[in-house]
Structures are given as structure tokens and as C-alpha cells.
């Protein structure tokens, strides 16, 4: 089933960050997520000590930037652990900045599932 990317970043993940704020801060860092194509957008997810919060846009102060198409985001969301590495090595998931933080991205999506 396809995920509604706008709903995920504008409603579901912000609610999950509030609900699981301590777990979110343990992930740490500031993530810029840029999803291109249909239903995409740009969001900053702040899991630092000043967070957790999620805001629309690209203010340019992220520790790591993750860019991918909305089609590939669907695959990532279906199975973050398996598909993140597959998409990364296929050149479909672009990561700039702190690579170690990018490895923690599946934990973020687990907060929403929990």
C-alpha cells in the first residue's frame, strides 16, 4: 500500500515525535529529507536537543541531507532496513553530510509505527 508522503511528514511523523520525544532525541541530529516527484516535498526533522520537531522546507542547517524520488521513498518506507542500503548502492538514495546519521533513519520510521 502506498504511503501518503505529505500526510506522513505533515501529520503522522510530527505526532510520533511528540509521543516518543525521548526516543527521538536518542536518534539525534538534524535530517533534511528531500523527496522529488509526485507528492514529494522538503522537510527538516530536528532530533537534536532543541527538538524533536519537524518542519516543512529546507533551512539549510541539517547534519545530513537525504534525497530520493517519491517512487523510491515508497520502497524505503515499505522496508527501511533492507531497502535503504539497496537504494543507496543503486544511487537512488543520495546522502550528503553525516553518513552515520543516515544509518539511523529506519529508527525514525519505527517511531511512527510504534
TrEMBL record:
Gene3D superfamilies, per database record: SCP2 sterol-binding domain
InterPro entries, alphabetized: SCP2_sterol-bd_dom, SCP2_sterol-bd_dom_sf
Membrane-spanning residues: none
Alphabetical list of SUPFAM superfamilies matching this protein: SCP-like
GO CC term (a single one): cytosol
Domain SCP2: 19-110
Protein name: SCP2 domain-containing protein
Native species: Sorangium cellulosum (strain So ce56)
Amino acid at each position: 500500500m502506498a504511503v501518503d508522503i505529505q500526510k506522513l511528514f505533515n501529520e503522522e511523523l510530527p505526532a510520533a515525535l511528540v509521543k516518543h520525544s525521548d526516543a527521538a532525541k536518542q536518534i539525534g541530529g538534524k535530517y533534511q529529507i528531500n523527496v522529488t516527484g509526485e507528492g514529494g516535498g522538503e522537510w527538516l526533522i530536528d532530533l537534536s536537543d532543541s527538538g524533536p520537531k519537524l518542519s516543512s522546507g529546507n533551512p539549510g542547517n541539517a547534519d545530513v541531507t537525504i534525497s530520493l524520488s517519491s517512487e523510491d521513498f515508497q520502497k524505503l518506507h515499505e522496508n527501511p532496513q533492507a531497502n535503504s542500503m539497496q537504494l543507496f548502492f543503486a544511487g537512488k538514495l543520495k546522502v550528503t553530510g553525516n553518513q552515520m546519521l543516515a544509518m539511523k533513519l529506519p529508527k525514525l520510521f519505527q517511531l511512527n509505527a510504534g
